[in-house]
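Q: Protein A?
A:
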Amino acid sequence: MMRAPAIAAALVLAAAPVAALAGGDLSRSIGRALFERAWVPAPSSTKANDGLGPLFNARACVACHNGLGRAPATTDADGAFIHQGMVVKLSNAAGRPDPVYRAQVQTSAVPGLLPEARVLMSGTEARLLELSSGPISAETRHGVRQAPALRGLGRLSDVPDEAILALADPDDRDGDGISGRANLIADAAGVTRVGRFGLKASSADLRHQVELAFLLDLGMSTTAFPVEWGDCPTPTCRAAPAGGGVGDPEIRDDLVAMLTDFLASVPPPAAQEDDSSGRALFAATGCASCHVPALPSARGEVRAFTDLLLHDLGDALDGGATEPDVAATEWRTAPLWGIRHALSAGTGLLHDGRAASVADAVRLHGGEASNARQRFDVLPEDDRLNLLRYVEGL
């Protein structure tokens, strides 16, 4: 028997846009159904279901974000991807995409087309095999990215831009060695806003992040990204059938709004009471300088353990590919709430899952985090274990 949200979703997908649904319980129920929906290539029996590809990494949001948390990436006996929890990003040193393969390697394709590449993993290093359109540019760098946890995104939206900017110190005027900066982004109306979503803080709002995922991961067009062939510029891709109506995006605005509404409604991981000694050590080592325990909002404190700023973390955390105006070694401070769930699921930590433990992650921190790492390294063993237990429990 079809569940009520799925029935509602089917009705809305088949109907004209229903803007009045946005913001309510029905909107969020339909948003959940859209999150779980497996899309299909065009043409299909109903245009409401089609538009996938022509190149893509997954057929559904839930394929990479099952349970809304980080998912462990798995490979076959040869080391090739068999789980969709990771993607490979492409760019040159300035953040410009590869001229042929664009911003992300697409490992699946609609019938009649070849995937862009087969990705073979060795540890956290990716090898690109069977490239369908010749070699990547000599200037292009690549880097693995693990699908992030999606809990608490609505609370990150609550933090005012002013609160993030107040923490920025791009010139390190206080001399503490930390020069976090906001990623300032011009939106569609030309208004400068503070980026806060994504590993490089490249989206200022959750809706933009959702539309970017439709573009890069599913190859589906939206109002913000209207190109129906997604991340592929080759003539073969452009000739593939598109979904939606003539001149319309494959994913309508009301559907984007309902999916965004659902994700914004997902609460953060439940807070755990922390011990005062662990909390004091977290501050004393300097971890709290970037992993700020709480940020203000109109709905109360957001205890995400992040400042939402970009920090240069040194060569050991060079991510290969990057984005315009952001160095390959710069990352938005990762929220630590829910880190205990990532550890229990065995997903690894950092942008590519390379760190098996909190201690491993700390010791890969360089650049602006060098002083904090050094203070961690010289802690007495009991204090270091106490600090680790504190972070592992967040």
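Q: Protein B?
A:
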Amino acid sequence: MRKTLGLLLVVGLLAGCANNSAERSIQQFTSSMENELHFVYFYENEPPEKNIRSQLNGMKVYLARKNITATISYQKIIADRNYQKILGVKDRQILVFDYKGIRYNARNIHVLEGMVLQMD
């Protein structure tokens, strides 16, 4: 009985640590203000091409016209942290964070543009 309880405690602690790691990873990308977004483009080997960067900057300008501040960053999937394991991201995936956490998740830049254009 003691061994079973000890095993359950260890498994619970490990699950809590993994969950905490994901929360910390999300928190590093979230903003502190309500009208602020952070676009994070995850890549495996090479940062995005010029046309993708241009489209992301276009969305940033569009949002600025709506008084929404946007920042863009490019994050290698496996760097100081393994974002593939922690957040489940893949090559060329874009996550958009707001003050609450992940707001949008897209693997296609055109789908993301559609989501951004529908913002109020």
